[in-house]
Write a structure and sequence with these properties.
The protein is built from six helices and no strands. By secondary structure, the chain is mainly alpha-helical. Helix 2 packs antiparallel against helix 3, helix 3 packs antiparallel against helix 4 and helix 3 packs across helix 6. 26% of the residues are buried.
Length: 187
């Protein structure tokens, strides 16, 4: 189980890091004439990748070891290991991943969605929806409502849909976003 858990955290890490090139792609695409807010959106997108990655690495640094030690731990001390696991996971889940990283990615999606609406309306609207729904996550944290926080988590489910759609558009026609192959923005 510890090895499977480690593998899941490696995939989690890679999923978070995979958004960073997309964030930087849009920064390069929209940069001319829009440095102010675009820099904020880009910071938020990169922060999401880094915060999510850090959470995965922290969890993976401790949980597989706890899982391995659990079987050989006396029954009287197992409750302590379970408490440590719950507290650590809660610290990452509700301290780094939610609401902080979700706030960051929601701001990025809102900003990029507003910019994309003009050229790729569907992709832009979906990005805005992801960002708007995602903002419910930190709002739920602020007002202390796990229900609102959970509804906000639905935005995360749509991120792979958006990135797949973006990837398909880019693969079908690299010029569809206005960047020619071989240009300084494409490299």
């Amino acid at each position: 189980a510890a090895a499977m858990f480690h593998a899941s955290m490696v995939f989690d890490l890679l999923a978070y890091l995979s958004l960073a090139p997309v964030v930087l792609y849009f920064w390069a695409l929209f940069k001319p004439g829009r440095e102010g807010l675009l820099s904020l959106y880009t910071f938020c997108g990169v922060a999401y990748s880094l915060l999510g990655s850090m959470g995965a690495v922290v969890i993976d640094a401790v949980f597989p070891q706890l899982m391995t030690n659990f079987a050989s731990t006396p029954a009287t001390q197992r409750e302590t290991l379970q408490l440590i696991a719950r507290v650590l996971y809660r610290a990452v889940e509700h301290g780094i991943w939610n609401p902080l990283e979700v706030l960051m990615v929601s701001i990025w999606f809102l900003g990029i969605g507003l910019l994309l609406r003009q050229t790729k309306a569907g992709l832009g609207i979906l990005a805005i929806v992801i960002g708007a729904v995602g903002l419910l996550d930190p709002l739920g944290w602020i007002i202390g409502s796990d229900t609102v926080l959970s509804i906000g988590g639905f935005g995360n489910i749509l991120i792979p849909v958006w990135t797949t759609w973006f990837g398909i558009i880019l693969l079908r026609n690299p010029l569809s976003f206005g960047i020619e192959k071989g240009s300084e923005h494409a490299s």
